[in-house]
Amino acid sequence: MRGKPTEQEEYTSQDWVHRMTGTSDTFLAFGSGRHLCPGRFFASLELKIFMAYLVLNYDVKMAREGMRPPNEWLGPMSDPSTNARVLFRRR
């Protein structure tokens, strides 16, 4: 379950609880089956802690406001643009 819900499915509040550590056939960043990454919960927690710190201590904005660079695709995976400029200011 990644991305926006389709017309057939609708997310409930419980869907978001396991969203970062859940797996599916269409999202293989943490592997699948016997090769499922045991550190995915730790990685998820570290990312959440970092984001909380960032939100609490910094003002963040795009260098070119009003324009979001398109994602870069590598096969089925997409990443934010590596050419994007983001400005951080400590509060």
TrEMBL record:
Keywords: Heme, Iron, Metal-binding, Monooxygenase, Oxidoreductase. Its cofactor is heme. One of its GO terms (molecular function) is iron ion binding. Heme binds at C37. It comes from the Eukaryota. InterPro entries: Cyt_P450 (IPR001128), Cyt_P450_CS (IPR017972), Cyt_P450_E_grp-IV (IPR002403), Cyt_P450_sf (IPR036396). PANTHER family: CYTOCHROME P450 (PTHR46206). Belongs to the cytochrome P450 family. This is Cytochrome p450. It comes from Moniliophthora roreri (Frosty pod rot fungus).
